[in-house]
Amino acid sequence: MNISLKGQVALVTGGTKGIGKAIASKLSNVGAQVVVTARHEPKDQTSEHHFITADLVQPEAAEIIAKEILEKYGRIDIIVNNAGANLSPGGGFSSLSDEHWHNDWQINFLSVVRINKALLPSMITQKHGVIINISTGAAKQPIWELTMSYSSAKAALNVYSKALANEVGSKEIRVNVVSPGVVKTPLMMEFIEDIAKSSNTSVDEAFKTVMNKVGVPLGRMAEPEEIANLVAFLVSSEAKYITGTNYSVDGGALPIV
Ligand SMILES: NC(=O)c1ccc[n+]([C@@H]2O[C@H](COP(=O)([O-])OP(=O)(O)OC[C@H]3O[C@@H](n4cnc5c(N)ncnc54)[C@H](OP(=O)(O)O)[C@@H]3O)[C@@H](O)[C@H]2O)c1
């Protein structure tokens, strides 16, 4: 398959680590001009990507990012809303305060709504655009003791993405969701270390607990590049009839057909 994104401008939020970093690298390898955002600029930030510092939980961040992209490039073709995190403690409903719920919904749901709202008018004018919202298998397969508020926010992201795809399809804009299962990233490693600490076990034991809870037929975590490969296909013209869909990349973990 010959994917080329030459001449296209792509935004990847959270494009400095883990899945976002792999997506940014893949998209620029196939020709896109890539803008990445994060709260901290990494020391090894490649000059191939235009970097914007932004904390996406701040309501004004989306407008600032959109303004900078449109001033610099005059267009936006691809948005990959990747930044996200499970910011709450484990333990189920009684461990979760209003603040935990608020934090998870800000970064995993509202920040995406704001980025899309700020950039969609340009896509509509261009009559061209692709949006990928990165969700999680845990939105369909919540683990109550570990992911209750995070899973809820990502499930809302899935529903919002379907509604948005229905709204903007006639304007030549496609919207899809990619739902990873368990992926070897800094976020996943922190999550496992937190479980080890709170349950007073080793990191190896906590790793096994997560793998057993999720149940991955392929028997391993994904590499970030394995998520990036699907994103590159979905944003390309090879996928020009695909919209309103949610793709799992989870080694077979989702136990439904
Ligand atoms: N890893 C997995 O197993 C897994 C599974 C399913 C779904 N996902 C989803 O995949 C996405 C990426 O996860 P990952 O594991 O690659 O995460 P990661 O390794 O923690 O990387 C997250 C990226 O987002 C940025 N970020 C975090 N909070 C931010 C904020 N408030 N404002 C702006 N940028 C922020 C981080 O940079 P800074 O810290 O510098 O801001 C970093 O670039 C997330 O949406 C996650 O929910 C991951």
UniProtKB/TrEMBL annotation:
For this protein, the record's InterPro entries field holds: NAD(P)-bd_dom_sf, SDR, SDR_fam
Pfam families this protein is in?
adh_short_C2
Q: Which family does it belong to?
A: Belongs to the short-chain dehydrogenases/reductases (SDR) family.
Annotated NCBIfam families: PRK06523.1
Indicate what this protein is called per its UniProt record: SDR family oxidoreductase
In its UniProt entry, the species of origin is given as Adhaeribacter swui
